[in-house]
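User: Can you help me understand a structure? I only have the sequence.
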Amino acid sequence: MPLKAEMWPFAVLGVVVVVSAVTDVRSGRVPNAVTYPAIAVGLIVHTLLGGLRGEGPGMGLYASAIGLTVGFLPMLAVWLAGGIGGGDAKLMAAVGALTGWRFALSVLFYGLIAAMVLALIVMLRKRIVRRTLRRVFRFLALLVTPSKPADPAAGQSEKVPFALALCVGAAAALAEVLVRGPEAVKLLGF
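Assistant: Let's start by predicting it. Here is the structure, written out as tokens:
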């Protein structure tokens, strides 16, 4: 089956999330050299193919920008709270710019599930489940007090490569589209 012109965002997305996952696992960072070009490609190519509002085979600049915003803003809030790195937030912006807001939300949903599983695996392997849960409950208790809550993550806290979780999330979201077929494609805006 030949590759349709509408599949280009998924091909680019695949390269972006795999490269980001590998670099995040190896170095703990998601490089700007991956995320910024992916955002630019999403915005520019969708504009060239679909105009401002998606009058052609692309979803257009407007839908790509909405996808970028929906992918980036929740992750920006988590980054500002200290939960993830800035590269992870920019990676989700790239996901949204390439694939639109519906697919970005799907990637985020599956990515968060993958991150929880990865965190559980790390806690079990390092035997820090009790210590981690104690810090989380302390943080939650501090949230309801009038003072400013402390960061539940200590300096020695184990880190989960969130770009790896987003890579798994993107694969799961794409698998859902492939399994569900035309209904999922319509639902996700393609």
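Now, to help you interpret it: Residues 35 and 91 are 6 Å apart (CA to CA). The first helix runs from residue 8 to 27. Let me know which part you'd like to focus on.
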